[in-house]
Specification:
The protein is mainly alpha-helical and about 120 residues long. The protein is built from five helices and no strands.
Length: about 120
Amino acid sequence: MSLFRIAVVLSLGVAVMPSDQEQQEALYERAATAAHWTITYCDRNGRQCEMAGEFWDAFLRKAQFAGKLAYDVAIRTSLEGAPTGAPVPQLASERGTLKPEDLSPVWRAEVRDGDI
């Protein structure tokens, strides 16, 4: 996000804040209550948090397996497609029927003394 967008969003956030002292205190109390309620969720719902932890552990194991599988398949596929030590032709006679003028670019830019 660009600096300008961040400034606009922050400005809008400050603009919608209440200016009355009583409204500010009420907003502060509501925010503190919401934060406390969120932080103590597992204290009130212990079994749900245990189940969520078990599901999260299972998800992480599956994600780790999927990543390892994708990596192994990619490596195995790239190794199977690669030539097994076949030399890469370096000489023009080994490259086929192309001549040196066939390998040169069709056009070249003109280089002037002041361009460089």
